[in-house]
Specification:
853 residues; alpha/beta; Beta-Lactamase; 7 domains; five-stranded antiparallel β-sheet
């Protein structure tokens, strides 16, 4: 049979003994407290009786009575003075001073402070002081003045007599009340003293009874604790968790039925074994490890248990220690959690599968949105080109309808892409300076045409102080406002739409901006207000007749405003209109000296009058494109295919401007520029503009030292070329402006081909773009097929990659340009970048360009 613990009865006895000791301490402390109370109250009674035996209030009574006596003497002095000569005024003044001194004593002496605390006494005293203060000018005047005012003085003095009398009577009443209160206090102390004495006697009686019943209580507690111990043993024995009790040496002394089932050991066998036998951990020699005390009191912890048959299972355990008269024991509650861990594993796998599915869905949506948008942009571009051709009204109408449908489809695809990017966390942007009035004005102007068709008036205004510049993610804010104003225009006919801006709170560097979009449209049904910002929610059949939509716009608004740290809400009355309210934290700033790249407002660039221009460029495709761009504006263009030819052409003819490619065979652009500047030819001071697809700030500085005047980066377009011409010929150069270097599209998603740029090149070169693309395709195939395998020197390969990047930029192949530039930098460092990435990017780019061209 297993050993059973028989400490339960003794342990409660120990606890009972401690409890009784505590009770004795409490009783003794209470008795001492009562004794101290008796002594303290006896002394208090003695002091109060001593005070009652003194006549300390006599002085107060005398002072109050004396005030009335001195007042009557003043009246008598005034009456005696009445009708006398002005030489008999001294006694009157003396009597007034005596009364004034008495009243001042009553008003300021600490002895009378408790009387002054009573409102009635204080008001009466104030009335008398007022009389005295008003009389002082008469008393202190000349004898003649005093004699002339003696009747008035007597009348005033008699008027104050009730107050003097009330002062004395009120003071006597207060003194009587105080004396009565003192006597009551003495009586109360005597009563309390009697109570304390009675309590002390009662305590002695209770102590006697307590001592009499102590043995009876002790025996009763023993019986109760024995029954409790029996119940506890029953609970432990029937527990579903394994309960293992060990002594201070960690040897098992109690092993319940659940423990037998969990570990496959009988209680007889388990008793006296080390508790570490139940755990999987072992010493190097195979001996079980003792369960260390540092596991005690840690709550529920997970270890590995060992079954009697040798298999290991996950175990959850909690160990606590208990001090008994047998010494310290350890109680462990243990549970096999194999099934729980299996369930947790299944749950985690299900969660991971769900997350993977969600991730795959988001990636699929992003991919499909992008893949749909790319050919859709090409379709819209071709429709735009078709509209420029001569055709009948019916065909033009059909093409217009196709373009409208395509733009609507593109907007929906963009909405899906925006949601996917935001939800995936990929849409990470930074705040930058934004001219708020300009943004709002641009948005309202953009909606003006559709609003006019609807018969709706648009306006915007500031409420309170306006703000010009703020720091915020302007792209998100613009997207939100376009969505809200666009929705208001769609659902408002023959009405008004107002956009209000207001600063609702301002501190040192942070402000709360509130934007309200208010319309007088059809409104929103009350049952739709709760879900209006959810995805794919529309306002119903009635409103779909006004305007179609997928219900994604307001979902994007909600996401973007939350991302900006703000809130959005809506108020609406059906049939009367709606108000969308945005609250955003912004930082007002001064107008920045320089705006971020890509955030500048477009400037109107005038075309300069025709010039004689030399283009030094080894890439024939680039020659054709820049030539077409310049000739389109009426300029005369000459070409040179390398730096050496460029120097010779510059020495032979006067040009107004020279475009100089940097990387060319035989002689590069920098060397050619130095030769032209160092000669005494006709172009030694002609502006020379560097053409390059990739340039670093440090290289720009070196270009200027070589004699180049400016830098024009590829890909070239009409605006860049015209802006460069304007900088050097129209006299309208903007301060500190530099033509933007080519950068990857500001959109956060990768773009293989800039279709807008491609369409512009198509407009510039016309049908020749097909021939240019075929030549470029052949050059790229040659590059991948032979050039990269030719074993040429890295410098030669770097120049070739530079030329190919310039050609790729012509077609807006942004990803291909970046890849070629990266390979150029690798070859310049003497590294081999490989051709796998270039082959993949060119394959994708070629497919898109083939479809678009």
């Amino acid at each position: 049979m297993p050993q059973r613990i028989e400490y339960q009865a003794d342990a409660p006895s120990l606890q009972t003994g401690r409890g009784r000791t505590l009770q004795v301490i409490i009783v003794v402390t209470l008795g001492l407290a009562l004794l101290v109370g008796v002594i303290t109250m006896t002394r208090d009674v003695t002091e109060k009786l001593s005070k009652l035996g003194t006549a300390s209030s006599d002085n107060l009574l005398w002072g109050l009575a004396q005030a009335e006596v001195e007042y009557l003497e003043l009246i008598e002095a005034i009456e005696h003075t009445e009708g006398s000569s002005d030489e008999n005024m001294a006694p009157l003044r003396q009597q007034f001073d005596v009364l004034y001194s008495r009243i001042d004593t009553l008003a300021t002496a600490p002895t009378y402070a408790w009387l002054r605390s009573h409102t009635e006494f204080r008001q009466t005293l104030t009335q008398i002081e007022l009389f005295l203060s008003e009389t002082i000018p008469v008393i202190d005047g000349t004898d003649l003045e005093l004699a002339n005012n003696i009747d008035v003085l007597l009348g005033r003095a008699r008027e104050v007599h009730p107050a003097i009398r009330s002062l004395a009577v009120n003071g006597l009443d207060r003194l009587a009340v105080a004396a009565e209160a003192e006597r009551d206090a003495v009586a109360l102390v005597l009563f309390r003293l009697a109570l304390v004495l009675a309590a002390l006697v009662g305590l002695l009686i209770l102590i006697s009874g307590y001592l009499t019943r102590m043995n009876m209580l002790r025996n009763r507690e023993k019986r109760q604790l024995a029954r409790t111990s029996q119940r506890m043993n029953m609970i432990v024995g029937t527990s579903l968790d394994a309960v293992v009790v060990a002594d201070e040496h960690w040897h098992i002394i109690e092993f319940n039925a659940a423990a037998e089932e969990t570990f496959g050991l009988s209680a007889d066998r388990a008793v006296s074994m080390p508790m570490g036998t139940l755990l999987a951990e072992r010493h190097e020699d195979g001996r079980p490890m003792e369960t260390p005390p540092k596991l005690v009191g840690l709550g529920r912890i997970r270890r590995r248990g060992r079954h009697a048959d040798g298999h290991i299972f996950p175990c959850e355990m909690s160990i606590q220690s208990v001090a008994t008269d047998m010494g310290r024991i350890y109680v462990a509650f243990m549970r096999d959690i194999s099934r729980r861990q299996q369930a947790e594993l299944s749950l985690r796998q299900a969660r991971d599968q769900a997350l993977a599915g969600e991730r795959a869905k988001s990636e699929f949506l992003a991919l499909m949105s992008h893949e749909i948008r790319t050919p859709l942009n090409g379709l819209l571009g071709n429709l735009s080109l078709l509209q420029d051709r001569s055709m009948g009204p019916q065909e033009r109408k059909l093409i217009g309808n196709m373009e409208v449908s395509g733009k609507i489809l593109l907007q929906q695809v963009n909405n899906v892409l925006d949601i996917t990017r935001y939800d995936s966390g990929a849409d990470v942007r930074a705040a930058y300076p934004v001219h708020l009035p300009g943004m709002v004005r641009e948005i309202m102007d953009g909606q003006e045409a559709l609003a006019s068709i609807q018969g709706t008036t648009l306006n915007w205004r500031w409420v309170g102080d306006d703000v010009d510049w703020i720091e915020i993610d302007g792209e998100r804010l613009q997207h939100v406002l376009i969505n809200l104003v666009g929705n208001a225009v769609k659902f408002t006919r023959d009405g008004t739409i107002t956009l209000e801006l207001e600063q609702t709170s301002v501190d040192d560097d942070q402000s709360m901006l509130e934007i309200r979009v208010i319309d007088t449209g059809v409104g929103i049904p009350p049952d739709k207000l709760e879900s209006i910002f959810s995805d794919f929610v529309t306002t119903g059949e009635l409103y779909d007749r006004f305007a179609g939509g997928t219900g994604l716009g307001l979902g994007i608004v909600k996401r973007f405003i939350t991302g900006l740290g703000g809130t959005v809400s809506v108020e609406s009355n059906l049939g009367e209109g709606s108000t969308f309210r945005l609250r955003l934290p912004v930082r007002p700033i001064a107008r920045p000296a320089e705006l971020p790249i890509g955030k500048e407002a477009p400037a109107q660039i005038n075309v300069v009058e025709p010039k004689q221009i030399l283009v030094v460029e080894d890439n024939t495709i680039n020659q054709q494109v820049i030539g077409d761009l310049l000739r389109e504006d009426g300029h005369t263009v000459s070409f040179a295919s390398n730096g050496k030819q460029g120097v010779e052409a510059a020495a032979a003819e006067q040009f107004d401007l020279i475009f100089m490619d940097i990387s060319m065979p035989e002689m590069d652009g920098r060397m050619a520029t130095q030769r032209i500047r160092g000669s005494d030819g006709p172009n030694m001071s002609t502006p020379i503009i560097a053409l390059t697809a990739n340039v670093l700030p440090s290289e720009v500085e070196q270009f200027l030292k070589d004699g180049l005047n400016d830098v024009l980066t590829k890909p070239l377009n009409r605006e860049k070329v015209r802006a460069m011409m304007a900088r050097h010929f129209s006299g309208t150069e903007r301060a500190n402006e530099r033509i933007d270097s080519w950068e990857e599209d500001d959109d956060s998603e990768a773009v293989l081909v800039d279709l807008d740029h491609l369409e512009e090149m198509r407009t510039v070169v016309g049908g020749s773009i097909v021939d240019l693309f075929q030549r470029f395709s052949q050059e790229m195939d040659d590059t991948l097929g032979t050039k990269l395998r030719s074993g040429d020197e890295p410098d030669s390969l770097a120049r070739h990659m530079h030329n190919m990047a310039g050609s790729a930029a012509i077609f807006g192949a942004t990803d291909l340009v970046a890849t070629l530039q990266g390979m150029e930098r690798s070859y310049q460092k003497g590294e081999d970048p490989g051709s796998e990435t270039l082959h993949r990017v060119w394959t994708d780019t070629h497919a898109i360009l083939s479809d678009c061209i």
